[in-house]
Structure formats: structure tokens, C-alpha cells
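Lab notebook, bench 4. We co-purified these components, and the gel suggests they stay together. Before we commit to crystallization screens, I want a quick structural picture of the whole thing.
Request: model the full complex, all chains together.
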Amino acid sequence: MGELNRKKAWELLSLLDTKEISAVELTQSCLAEIDRSGKKLNSFITVLSDSALEKAREVDVKRSKGLPVGRLAGVPVAVKDILCTKGVRTTCGSRILQNFFPPYDATVIRKLKEADAVVIGKTNMDEFAMGSSTEHSAFGPTLNPIDPARVPGGSSGGSAAAVTAHQTILALGTDTGGSVRQPASLCGIAGFRPTYGAVSRYGLVAFASSLDQISPFAKDARDLWLISDVISGHDRRDSTSIPERLFDYPYSGFKGKAGLPKTTRFGIPKEFWGEGLAPEVREAVRGTIDKVSKAGYEVEEVSLPALSAGIAVYYIICTAEASSNLARYDGVKYGVRVNDYADLFEMYAKTRAAGFGAEVKRRIILGTYVLSAGYYDAYYLKAQKVRAVMKKEFAEVFKKVDFLLGPTTPSAAFKLGEKTDDPLEMYLNDIYTVPVNLVGVPAVSIPCGKNREGLPMGLQIIGPQKKDEIVLKAAIMLESLGIKL
Amino acid sequence: MEYESVIGLEVHAQLDTAAKIFCGCSTEFGAEGNSQTCPICLGMPGVLPVLNKRAVELALRSILAVGGQVQPKSIFARKNYFYPDLPKGYQISQYERPLGTGGSVTVHLDGLAKRVGITRIHLEEDAGKSFHPEGRAIEYSLVDVNRCGVPLIEIVSEPEIRSPEEAYAYLVALKQILQYTEVSRADMEKGKLRCDANVSVRPKGQKEFGTKTELKNMNSFRAVQKALEVEIARQIKIIDSGGKVVQETLLWDEDRQAVAPMRAKEFSDDYRYFPEPDLLPLEVSMDWLESVRKGLPELPEARRRRFIEVFSLSDYDASLLTSERAIADYYETAVGLYPNPKMVANWINVEVFRFLKEKKIFIDDLKVPAAELAALLKKLDSSSLSNTMAKEVLAAMVETGKTVEAVVAQKGLVQESDEAVLDGWVREVISAFPKQRESYKAGKKQLLGFFVGETVKKSGGKANPKLVSTLVKKHLGE
Ligand SMILES: [Zn+2]
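Here is the predicted assembly.
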């Protein structure tokens, strides 16, 4: 059968359904890989070997008895350690939650369980999803499986590395400013950020509520479709969850060639080609665009001037929301509390000083500042205004074109420690991904070649709101053009 | 110099819902500490609020009841501050875009009516309760989060109240509206109504406001009035001696009957409000608003007018009976069972009110249900009890909670209606007052009452006055 863990979910599901393989075998092949490379890559914070095998056995029994099974029956899925799992430690990569065991499952975890997926473990991440390299974790950095001297990207670096290293078949991360698309790009896999509200945030520990979105990793766009279909849908526990079904089940596009009409228009935002873009990435993305054009699709340059303010707006809004969202970690109710304090306020201060890492503290301070009396109008309010302008520009541009195409990140994976001393340099790595979060539209990153050092680079396809299925269809089309690793 | 005070009140009223505002936990008062909680109201990582529609409806009612405007789109905001009884580290409230604006409350004081304007009415969640046990060995505080997420409305008045008495009257009127509309039980003892006050003074005639202070920690309407009196006197004393009032928050000390500044650490100046990203803007459709309007019960003012019209009551009687919805309900129940509106009104406004005052209780706590009062009045009407006896019976019912029948039986308070017995008493009385007998016979018929009264007195209150009256007339030759 070869190495099962190297296969894609849609291939494995048909093998499982025809009982050519068992879920236990498949799960064991992933667990064996975790055993082999997990420690070195530091991709997992918690590996759930026992419960994963138990679930796999349960699925095998169901299949052998001919009972109905869920849509991901027997497929291993790793989940970022920011998603609450009942009775299973959920740390958010932070010391302050190193002893936190949630009393409930996040909605996506419930949906995965109902789909009979095998939850194989909780993956490493930048503390509270704040970072672009997975170096800001209280549990140590995760390494890029392609080149262990380099970062896997972040903040969902553990999930990206786990899929890349075949420690799991699928994985969930969260994408607040690019935290799934950027590591997908740096690891050479596929990562999809659905429309804001497509996937319930209930049980996702909040970093920046208006930007956070649970997002899957996979080896190709077809697998992204499979898991997105499972995890999306309206949830009455999340007031911002959208009521419509965004995915058609079963997916008709799988039959025959994923056909996009030749009248499909791709827009190339000129703001994506400015300063800071590595020539090799520019070349790779340009090459892909040429192929799209040669395949007979319309390609035209477009402009979204507000994109230039993306990073500034993003770091005002996300830090503002984070400063409030992280106020609950005060040592009173759960998580870590220091032992030595004179009064209540010292307990707060010492607990938070000891519990949070430097990047989290930096963002809490920034966010507190931009919301303070006297600064609110100049920062937070202005950022919201620019955000509204950006939404308008996107709505306008999507009247002219069906998709936007561009690079996912300005460069291939950087070295560990390379940007940790320069937060601004680190933030700039999100320059092409954050506008998607600010506007709330769906976007997918797929590989578009390797540089001379053999490091993967990513291409981003951005679509209009709620056109999630079509965005993935476009990704499948691009993959079919042979733009692959 | 003569001063005028400028007062604005901020009232927090608990909305009378079964569930909390953002989760399904119960709002029942008096449950065991921390028993009414879930991950949401505990502020666990990853949870999200979902707005309780019933809470919105009650808030809408309150806005309609004061004649305010419901904003078609309002926005929830986070009020950020650290305190152990606030598990999320922020309170979900409304800030720049409240649910309701405008309206007024009619206040009656010294026979004059005055309208106090309402600035805004907004929805928010309550915080928990901290306990600080005292004692040398105790080095901890306890938190009860049962109240966390209990739905509140904050009703902010315009600074149009001019005296502590007016503030008191405003609170009475507001409480009446909230109870009538069943928006809130508005019970200050159970923390279902709380009031903070902003107060400043200025020389009479001056247009500009003086520097205000904020008063907190008053736990009754009288305490609000008293705290305002004390604070106004304090401010005047400062200004008269050439000083300046400092803008600050003061806590009312009920035991010392004095105000004291809040310790700096107990509050924060900058709550860093920003729109709550976990909730969508609250949109109220015309249809929704209309259905709430239709369900609005009769308001105190309308009920007063109806009592005057339908029951032919005086303005005074109707005002007293409609002062509280529970009293008006009590009255209507009693009248329904014993349809003599004037008599029932008299008995409630005189006798029942006297007991409420004496015992310092509300009508809900009165041990005599409306049906029993009606039964008592029926007995009185059918002459099986005299007026004096009926009052005695009511007093006993108030004390013991027993039924009319039980009290009457126990006390042996049966009206004497045996004609032979009555006849004996009447004869004795007539022969005891020969002068009056002659006057009556000469045509002074109003003396009938005198003979009846004397006979009832002679019987020790037991004689049936109607029968006595007939007998007197018979003996005196009619
Ligand atoms: Zn609750």
C-alpha cells in the first residue's frame, strides 16, 4: 500500500470505504511518523495516541458492520492548540494556560468528531496566535520540515509542519492575519481561509475576534474542500456565524475536470508587487499567472489603493481586540497564578508578567494604547474607517474580476531567529495576507514552485465573500495546470 | 447665597428574564454561590456571547413606557476593567449607540407634576459579587459569579432633578413604570434596582453647571435622598468657604450617614470602550417593535384614569390604588369578587394601607389575599358582621393569615340577629332615654341613628344594626 500517511484524504477515504486499508493502520502510520520526527520538529504540544487509536478502531468497526460513517471517517486531523478540547489540555502555546483543561469542545472539534475524523493531537503555535514564525511559543519553536534551520511560518506552524512532515493527513489552524496561508506557503502545502463567519469560532480561544477564522491545511485544494465542508456551517453559539451553506455536498466539481469557465477573470493587484517582494517569489508567481493566461483565462491588472495601509490597520485592530480578549487571564479563575503577591493588583501584574511572553505583552500594550482615551480616534477609529474603505475597494474590484491572484508571502521561509529581534520586519511578512482578514473574504494559498535553495513559495487566490467553493475550484484548476511542487 | 442643586440619576434595573443575557443560566435570586454558571458567564477561553431576545424585548418595553425612541440599530461595546468579579475582564454594555434615547418620567411632588427627561436606556450585563471576609486569619476574598451576565438596563436621566425629594419621587415613579410593564421587579433589597447619582450645586439663577460628584453605594430610595442631602450640604459648605468641589466618586456610608471618596484603586477612569466584535449590531425591525408595543400592559397613568371612569372613584382614591401595580391588581381582584368599588377602595386605602405602613411591608407580603378581603366585605354587607367587628377580624387576619371564617369562628364574633334578644335591648334603650323618645315622636326622625347606636353599644358591638333599626322604628310607632 506504500506509505499511507503520504496520501491525500480523498484518496484514503476511497481506500477506507473499500476496506483496502483500515483506519487503525492509517492512524498508526501517522503516529509512527510523529514518533520519528515529532520531537525534532516540535510540531505537537500534545499527541493523542490513545484516543486517536480508539476512534480509529471505532470507525473500523462501524465500517465492518456496514453502519453509516461520517465524511472524514478514519482520517487523522491535527488541531492547533488554540481550539478547546474537552478534558484535553489546551495551552494556546502559553505558560499562562499550561494547566488549562477546557470543560467543553469547540464547535469544530464536535463537528470533526461527528464526521468520524481521528483527532491525532494538538499542535504547536505562536503564543495566542501572535506571530508569523511559531518561534513565540512557550513550548519552544517548531522547525520547518523542508529545512529545519528555517521557520515553518506561523502562527499555525505546528499544524503546517505536521501536514508537511506527514504526521497527519489534515490539520486545522487559525488565520487571523495569514496564520494559515503564510505557513502553508512556507511549507509548500495548501491552506485555506474561509469567509469570515463560515466556520464557528465557538471554542476558538480569541486573539482578535473580528479577524480570527479557523482554517484548514491539506496537501491539495480538494482535501481543503473536504474538511471545509465538514467544519463550516451555521452555529447558534456564534452570533457572527453566517447562516448560508457555502459548500455543495457532495461536491460536483470532483467529477471530471474542475471546470472554470474560460470567461473567468483574474485580477492582479498592482499593490502586491511593491518593495519587499523577493525577486524569486515575483518570478514564480508571474510564471503561474502566465500559465493562467495561456490556458485561456482573462488576466488584468487592478488596483486597491487602501491595501498599502493593510499592515498598519491590521496591527491596530488586532492588538486592540487582543488587549481586551486576553484580560481574562488574570490568575483568578483558571490557568497559572503566581504565589507571591501583596494584594490583588500585584497578583494580576505578577501573574501576567510571568504568564505571557514578550510578543503577547507587546501586543497587549499596543492594543491598550490605541484604545486609550485621547488616542482612540487617532488610531482605532481611523483604522476602522480605513478598513471600511478597504471593504468597499474589494467589493468594487470583484465587480470587475472573479478572483485576485498574487504572492502569499514576500519571501520563502526565513531562518530561525532571523526576525525575532525586529518585530516590524516580522509583521511585514503578513503584508499580502492581512487584507483578506480585514475584509473577511475567502483566500487560499497553494504552492507555486521552489526557489534555488529548494524552499517552497506560495500563490494566493482571493475571492469574493461567500464564494468559498469557487475559490477552491480555482485552486483545483490552478493545480491542474501543473503548478505544483 | 442661595443655591440650587442639579441632579441626574443612573438607575440599573434587572430585567425580569428567566435566563441570563448571553447564556442560558438561570437568574434566580438566592441560589447557592457559583451554582448558576456555565463556561460562557465564567468567561472561559473560547466562549462567545449570544444575545437573549427576551432581554431585548423587556428593554424595548421600558423605552416605549417612558416614551423614548428605539434606535433601529444599536451597538454593544466592551467596557474594559480588571476586577475578580468580572471574569472576562470586560463588561458587555452599550456605549456610543444605545438601544433607546429620549423620553421622560412624570414625577408627582407636593401636588405638582413635573417631567424628568431620560437621556438614554441601554442594555448591559451585570458583574458578579465579591465578598471580603473579615478577620485576622483571613487573607482572601471570595467571588460569586451567579450574577455575572444577569441582564440589566441602565436608565440615565437628564440632569433635570432639582432636589433630593424630587430624586426620591423620580425613583418611585420609575419603579412604578418598571413594575407595571413587568420589565423588572425593581426590588432594591434584592439588588434588582440600583441607583447612582450625579450631583452639583450652583448659585440660583446661574446657567452653567457646577462641578459634579458621583454618589454610589446607596441601597434604598431613602438612602439616595439622604446621600444627596448630605452631599449637597457638603458642596455648599465648600463653595461658601471659598473652596472648590473636586470631581470624584463618593461612596455613601449608611452607618455613618456620610460620604467618603472611593479608593483610587477601586475604579478606573479609562474603560477603553470599543464595539463588541463578538456580537452583531442589534437591529430592531418595525414589526418587532410593533409587537412589543402591542404587548405593553396598561401604564400607571392610564390605569388611574380608568379607575376614575369605570369605578367612579375620586382622583385621590384612584391615585393611591394605582401607586403600585400589585395594589391595583389587588383592588381589581377584590372588586371582581365583591362589586362595590367605593367600599373596596375605602377598605384598601384606609385599613389595608394602615397595616402596610405599620408593618413596613408590601402588599405581596400581606397575609390577607384579595379574595379574603372580598369575603370579609361580603360578610359585612350581609350584616353578619358589624363594621367594628369587621375591622377586628381584618386585624386578626393580618396577624395570623387565617381566613375570615376561621377568625370569626375562633373569636365567636357572630352578629346577634335573634329578634327576641334584640327586642329586649331595644326596649331597654328606649325606656332609658324618654326625652329623646318624645323628640322622635314629635318628628325628629334623625334620632333613629342615636337609638340604633346606643343599642349596638349595649350589645357590645354584636347587635345587627339593620334589624335594630327596624325594631326601633316599630317600637316608636311606625
Ligand atoms: Zn452561564
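Chain B has three domains: 10-163+178-200+265-290, 298-411, 419-475. Worth comparing against the SEC data before the next meeting. The mean pLDDT of chain B is 91.
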